[in-house]
Amino acid sequence: MKNWKDDLEKYITVIIQNHKHKLLAIGSMPDHIHIFIGYNVNQLIPDLVEDIKTSSNIWIKQQGFTKFKFDWQKGYGAFTHSRSQINQVVKYIKNQEKHHQKKSFKDEYTEILVKNGIDYNEEYIFEFFESTFSKD
């Protein structure tokens, strides 16, 4: 994925900007992506996520970036942050590769849910593919 990470992030950035959202940070990993935006209230989050997933899925396949079948998972997480947290969240997203050397995506995601007081059932959160990807 490292060879097409930048292209994917640029492609998704255009989708976000076309919907009049302001991209604050984007960071893609082999098994997930973080997108931090200044939200345009004229579009529902599920509609934006659907457009990002559908458009980028088609584009990834057209580009032939992977020899494996590629599809985004059905689920997603969306969280809000206060203005005072913007710099902290941007820094967090930009440091994903380093961060995930210490903590898996599953651990990270469930920790975010717990920190935000969100009750969840493991059965309903997405599948995690930690063992599928190497860290290089």
Give a verbal description of the structure.
This protein has five helices and two strands; from the N terminus they run αββαααα. The protein has one domain (about 5-130): Alpha-Beta Plaits (2-Layer Sandwich). It has helices at about 5-20, 45-65, 85-95, 95-100, 105-115; strands spanning about 20-30, 30-40. The longest helix has 19 residues, at about 45-65. It has a two-stranded antiparallel ribbon with strand order 1-2. Mean pLDDT is about 85; it is low at about 130-135. By secondary structure, it is α+β, with helices and mostly antiparallel strands. α1 (about 5-20) runs antiparallel to α2 (about 45-65).
What is the fold's blueprint, element by element?
Elements: H1 5-18, E1 22-29, E2 32-38, H2 45-63, H3 86-94, H4 96-99, H5 105-115
In a nutshell, what does this entry contain?
With 136 residues, this protein is of the alpha+beta class. It has helices spanning 5-18, 45-63, 86-94, 96-99, 105-115; strands at residues 22-29, 32-38.
